[in-house]
Amino acid sequence: MLPLILIGLLACASAKPCADSEGSHQEVLLSINKNLLRSMGTQEEPPNPSVHLALRLSNVHNLAKENEHLNRLKTKLHNDIQNSLSNSQPIDGLLALYTLALKSSCYDLNTVTFTVAEKRETLLTVLKKQMEDEKEHIAFSQRPSTNYYQYSLGILALCVSGVRVNNHVSNKLIKAVEHEHFKHGDSVSIDTYAMAGMALQCVKTAGFHVHGAAELNIALSTIKQKLTTARRADGHIGNEFSTGLAVQALLAMGNQVEECAASLEAMRTDARRNIYHNPMAMSQILPALQQKSYLTVQNHDCLNEDDTLVLEPTDPVVVTASDSNVAVAVTVEVITSGGVAAVYSVDVPKGSSLLEALELLKGKNAGFTFETESSLWGPFLSMVNGEQARQSDRRYWHLSSDGTGLTEGINDYKIEAGQKVTIKNTSY
Ligand code: B12
Q1: Which residues contact 181 (CB under 8 A, 6 or more apart)?
Q2: Whose CA is nearest to atom 28 of ligand 1?
Q3: C-alpha to C-alpha distance for 256 and 417, rounded to whole angstroms
Q4: From CA 268, how far away is CA 283, in angstroms rounded?
Q5: Over the stretch 312-333, which tens digit does the pLDDT of each residue have?
Q6: How confident is the model at residue 45, as a pLDDT?
Q7: N or C: fewer beta carbons within 10 Å in the chain?
Q8: CA–CA separation, 114 vs 96, rounded Å?
Q9: 385 with 367: CB under 8 angstroms?
């Protein structure tokens, strides 16, 4: 009897989920797939290349909806990218995500073109040139004009598309790993280490980096070590939102699924607790939960795909009168770049988002104003009381509550109890 129990326990402790947990693992996957499919939404909503990529790498599909979304990427997103290029904006990250999304649908990348300086160029040529410009920018000012996360995405997208990545371009990333340049605000950016890991692993496997192979290997082991030491007791690597990318990177760099079991379990628990309600968050964890990484786009052949993913009509949302009736007090402290502080107060219905709270506060005409910019993660707070925190000046409005940095933005962060929120113009 005892050996049988022991075998059972051992089977459950291994990474391959056993009977019961296998069922609930599949349930989590299905629910994320459906939520992502739902987030693709209607014609009016901007198409999201990261969501497309995640659904295309998935094991279950709704091919008609994915195809319709692909068409919107090729029209709407294409247009947006063309506009940014016409305004000479650095958009390596978005170009890279667009490339990965198209490639995940096995779309012929050579047929996708943009007009830059009155010349027609293919998507991959434009991306390659952006990366050369970024490389120059790093040489001149020690960082890319976007960030190292986007620089890594750029290398990854070129590499999985079979474009030879210039040694000087990958060297800049290798040097940045060596000098620990990957920061998110004032803390370490695990997301960036993960993306850099996938990019450099691709470069290594493709054999693009024969000169300087030793440096490349050192950078890869440094990244592995950064990711493993960032693993918390509860299995998360960094925080809830970097764990998916970190697991993708570790798997891409050759770690066994068993070694990531605790992190996979942590993400499944988060998913059940609805921590990943933002489609971007779901899109970054779904490949990891299916034990894949963005590197698998390289050999994605789009053959014999499942087509069973269907959406049931959603139940109408029932607003619980009790919750929306309870008001909680929020104090908003604004600290400008000059260090001047102003404090405002507003009562909001319990469960409101921070964005809703800021809107109510703005409506009180107490002198508080704000503006946002849209991004793939949702509204990014860009201007407060007429003061802009610009990426070009390496500044942003940092959000914290009672001394702790928020791990979500204004649209996702919910106010459940009376509290103080600090919005501080910070340099990074
Ligand atoms: C770089 C980066 C930043 C930079 C952006 C400027 C720059 N240097 O480019 C800075 C340091 C300013 C920043 C700020 C914040 N960030 Co940030 N950021 C990232 C990172 C590493 C890469 C984003 C990127 O370039 N994506 C690629 C491009 C193609 O996509 P994009 O959507 O066009 O990119 C823009 C937006 O993502 C926007 N952005 C960056 N962070 C955030 C966060 C939120 C909530 C929103 C709405 C937008 C946004 O800036 C990008 C460049 O313009 C991601 C990591 C990840 N896993 O995605 C975290 C990440 C998105 N950030 C995060 C957070 C929490 C924040 C802050 C809320 C932190 C805080 N406490 O203040 C603030 C945003 C506050 C605000 N004003 O609204 C979380 C979001 C989690 C979530 N569930 O919402 C992530 C996932 C990191 C993490 N693992 O915790 N960030």
Answers
A1: 142, 143, 148
A2: 93
A3: 42
A4: 14
A5: 887 666 665 555 689 999 999 9
A6: 79
A7: N
A8: 14
A9: yes
For residues 243 and 284, give the distance between their C-alpha atoms in angstroms, rounded to a whole number. Answer: 9
Residue 65: helix, strand or coil by DSSP?
Answer: helix
How many angstroms separate the CA atoms of 11 and 329, rounded? 50
CA 420 distance to own-chain centroid: 27
Report which secondary-structure segment, H or E, holds 261: helix 261-272
Residue nearest to atom 50 of ligand 1 (CA): 375
Of ligand 1's listed atoms, the one at least distance from the Cα of 412 is: 84
Spell out the domains of the chain, with CATH numbers in brackets: 18-299 (1.50.10.20), 321-427 (2.170.130.30)
In this structure, the strands spanning 183-184 and 187-188 are antiparallel
Give residue-wise pLDDT tens across range 274-316.
Answer: 999 999 999 999 999 999 999 999 999 999 999 999 998 876 6
244: burial class by Cβ within 10 Å (0-12, 13-18, 19+)? buried
Query: In this structure, which residue's CA is closest to atom 2 in ligand 1?
Result: 184
Joined together, the tokens standing for residue 394 give 């390496």
Whole-model pTM above 0.90?
A: yes
Amino acid at 47: P
Return d(Cα 321, Cα 66) in angstroms, integer: 37
pLDDT tens column, 100-154 = 999 999 999 999 999 999 999 999 999 999 999 999 999 999 999 999 999 999 9
What SS3 class is residue 162? coil
Quick one: which of 428, 135, 411, 107 has its CA closest to 280? 411
Q: Taking a C-beta distance cutoff of 8 angstroms, is the pair 50, 283 a contact?
A: yes
Q: Binding residue per annotation — 147?
A: yes
Q: Which of 311, 178, 152, 334 is nearest to 245 (CA)?
A: 152
Residue located via tokens 């693709």 = 40
